[in-house]
Amino acid sequence: QRGDLGAAIRGRVGREPSIDLLEAFVEHWKGITHYYIESTDENTPAKKTDIPWRLKQMLDILVYEERQQTAAGEAGPCLEYLLQHKILETLCTLGKAEYPPGMRQQVFQFFSKVLAQVQHPLLHYLNVHRPVQKLLRLGGTVPGSQTEKEEVQFTTVLCSKIQQDPALLTYILEVRGSRYSEPTTLPREAASIQDKDRSHSKAADVSACAAQALSTQPPAEMEEPDGRAGESNLIASLIGLCKSKKGRVALRAQENLLLLVSVASPAAATYLVQSSPCCPAVVEHLCQLYQSVPAFLDPADIATLEGVSWRLPSAPSDEASFPGKEALAAFLGWFDYCDHLITEAHTVVADALAKAVAEKLFVEILQPHLLHVSEQSVLTSTALLTAMLRQLRSPALLREAVAFLLGTDPQPAAPDDGPRTLCAHLIGHCDHLSDEISIATLRLFEELLQKPHEQVIRGLVLCNLEGRHYVARGSPEPESYEDTLDLEEDPYFTDGFLNSSFQPSAKPPPAPATNSDGKTAVTEIVNSFLCLVPEEAKTSAFLEETGYDTYVHDAYGLFQECSSRVAPWGWPLGPTPLDPHEPERPFFEGHFLRMLFDRMSRILEQPYSLNLQVTSVLSRLALFPHPLIHEYLLDPYINLAPGCRSLFSVLVRVIGDLMQRIQRVPQFPGKLLLVRKQLMGQVPGEQLDHQTLLQGVVVLEEFCKELAAIAFVKFPPHGPHLHLSPPREGHV
Hints:
By secondary structure, the protein is mainly alpha-helical. Helix 8 packs parallel to helix 14 (about 245-265), helix 20 packs parallel to helix 23 (about 435-450) and helix 33 packs across helix 34 (about 690-715). The longest helix has 24 residues, at about 345-370. About 60% of the residues lie in helices and about 0% in strands.
């Protein structure tokens, strides 16, 4: 029956608006404080008392008063009363006491609505700043709090105010409040209606209220934190809410923290890094989530969670379930969030957070796992690192990840260098006794090669190719294809081999045609790769799905993507001309290329899945539009220096080995075709003799077509990067 007293007051504003509003405001506040004097039932929830209604009336009065103010930016009598009598401080104390039950929720809601609906700047006042800080300390610290929804709404309002006025961020983060102003006198309108009785009554009410609140809590719990340096209540509250089990609460808290770091000024950014728990807390949670991921995860299961987003960290429901799936999704979701924080944050915060991730997660946790004697530990940590790289987008974190994996200043390696660095150990893992570890580590490098950071390709490959010491100095250009390959000196290419019933798929082409700039014509390069595998070892002609056209189409898209990624690096269009008088120097392709060439030379002896991964990494390398990479990996006609090998020379030796092996396999063509159909799922799989060899031959044929397609799209006959129809398979 009491009705809306605020509305009634608004109806009488025509007579004495200031007096009526202030009297009503004080009456409602006295009604709240009297509750603590008169009430004897400690179990009645706050929402069943008149406290929520009175708080709403007080809010309505403040909002209405502000709308009636004639002088913009001037605080009205009711607002001045709220500030002068420290009403927010008292409410905060009542909320902390949680008396009556549910009072904390009411206080959070009142604070949020006052800050959101009152347009007058409030956060600069000490009597607002101090209770705001105390209220922040009440929330976000205990997981599963009953007031999480109200807490995150409160922080959302604060962050919205900071977004409107970024200069507030530094003030909000500081906890001492020394820079804040406190009104010392009430405006004349309010002062004119003050009387001693009301002041004495108010003082008595507040004292009774505080006494009642204090009696409900142990003394230790009521002691306020001292605001020591380094404590930032807003950041701590947001970090705590980010860990909430309630998805919407956690998401809103993460959005709020993201907003803070993105609007930070240089001063606020420095404070965030030096005097707040922002970076340590974010990274600590990341490390905790990593530690909660089971150590026995299958790399294939980890790969199924590709693209987990911080906005939707839970794993897709349509994916197959496996033990540890939720823990993995939580970790990858938070890692994605860290990546977004670093992307959006001020440079000072981004660099500090990226370094913290590198130090705490990469170096202190991940590196020991990568170097562990346990194969399972190595396997899982490598697959997790690959998943992280796949999601990584921020330049600052990518820089730290590359420095972690490759070092800060990679130098050309020597053949006898031991594995002193993490990179050297990882390259060694690519040639591990465990095929699973080899495949997982090769996938890691393939993912790394797709990142937009020049240091990756330079540290792994280019630093060893610079100087072109793989090219013979002072020797005449080869006159024929046979001279280029030194067939007469290759033990696999003996007279008996060349006169055998198995002949290459085409006669050796004539001396390679060259363009006006001296480069080998692309048609000759493409033909060299397409004709490398003998006809007897080819089976793709029987199956339309594996034609050369498909490789050209795929290679074109991948090459365009790679070219756009490396365009800012300013690579030269052609290799540096050789000085014919320069003496030859020993050439070493580097540990990475040596490992790949060694693996490639064993393609006929390795498992099918391992061969696929080796050729996939080599294809990624061949796509880079750098003249040295093109020359070393894709030009069959370079005149190699003594003792040097190129990708093509490795393939030639593999073909020589193949021609000797297949003579010992009965019904080789038929078995080879059957194996190809098995690999494509056209016929049921069954174990065959020489199955590893036959599968290796299939991979070899497809890899040669893939290299031909890459060469074609990189340097088409009529100029680079043109849309051209691919040549018919077998020749250009």
